[in-house]
Amino acid sequence: MNKWFVPLVLLVAPALLMAGGAPPNSDSLPTEVAKGRQIYEQYCAACHGWQGEGAANWNKPDEKGEMPPPPHDETGHTWRHSDAMLFRMIAEGWRHPFNKTDRLAMPAFEDTLTDEEIQWVIEYLRTLWTDDQRRYQQNESQDIN
Question: 35, 64, 82, 87: least buried by Cβ within 10 Å?
């Protein structure tokens, strides 16, 4: 099998499902994406929003001097990061460089989620982006690897 077949299917299938404009439901998603959505809802949605919309005023520091959780949908910037960077942020946590505190505002999930589960979350996040954003992110991921 061509080494690009599976990654291409995982990238294109969610886009095709989203083409109708309706929000995805877990029954119509590929297995990895459905699992990623379930994990996202369990661990990420409380901060990043149930539809990936992020916190209110996500692009302005809060009263602690920390940047609030950004959206993961097409209005945010998640799609600008490579797979490797997204994986690292989820696994190791993240502290925005402009935060005035030293704490990880985004907690690390490497002791909670397996590598495979983290990848499923990334697969789900792709369903929240436009076709152009998915292509951009795919190119960023290929440039890193």
Answer: 64
The amino acid at residue 50 is W
Single pTM value for the model:
0.77
How far apart CA 34 and CA 19 sit, in angstroms, is: 17
Cα separation, 122 vs 126, in Å, equals: 6
Pair 113, 43: CB distance under 8 Å: yes
* Residues 48/67, Cβ–Cβ less than 8 Å: no
pLDDT tens for each residue of the chain, 145 residues long: 445 444 444 444 444 444 434 445 555 678 999 999 999 999 999 999 999 999 999 999 999 999 999 999 999 999 999 999 999 999 999 988 888 888 888 999 999 999 999 999 999 999 999 999 999 999 999 965 4
